[in-house]
Amino acid sequence: MSLPVLVLAGSRDGAQDPLARHGNVAHKALLPVAGRPMIDRVLKTLSATPSLGPVYVSIETPEALDALDRAFTCVPTAKGPSGSVALALDRIGAPLLITTADHPLLQPVWITEFLRDAESSGCDLAVGVALRPVIERDVKGTKRTYIPLSDMSFSGCNLFLLRTDRARAVIVLWQKLERDRKHPLRMARTLGFGILLRALFRRLDSATLTSRIHALTGARVSLVPMAHGRAAVDVDKPEDLALVEKLLAEAS
User: Fold this and answer.
1) What DSSP string describes 128-147?
2) Model confidence over 123-135: pLDDT tens digits?
3) Which residue intervals define the domain MobA-like NTP transferase in the entry (predicted)?
């Protein structure tokens, strides 16, 4: 059975996005990475991964991708990534694999291992993460943004599996938190003050975090550690682009 894939490629600033301007392209997803649009690298990886497809791309300007010689269907974006995921989930349903257009290092083996571990966890929604020691082992000298829990410090890998329809409730929670991101008190009320206090003092562990999400949504969430530190490297700024091109050159 083929697993549908959603690639998040939205950029509200279009050609005015800083990376689009940096690359002199009409959209961030088309930023050249070692001579090829970074979304094209992602789409090639997806096509080379067994049991994936069809592929959907969430982008506000589908015509920007007309020159790509890949098989995919464009779907609408919404305000924020959580809204775009919600729209796509309404159309496609679960299970659904999600990644992003700014992940040009993505490899088939990473996806295959992530899906294997997500399935074995029996969760409703799986989130791919890379632990700090793994990232520092594989990408020496990199500066990533880490989420510090008491039992692990990790960075996201832009890989998500909405394994069952119960994952929809987590997306609804995500949308609420996204709407309230400038209102910490509202976020605290949603998540619970105890959770936020534990996080503030670095006493929050992964089991407590996922248990709280389960209590709020009824969905079982699993943080799936990746064996590859480079899975946490995406392209959000020019420095990331330089790093990715360096890593690609070393691998060739």
Assistant:
1) EEEEHHHHHHHSTT-----E
2) 999 999 999 999 9
3) 21-130
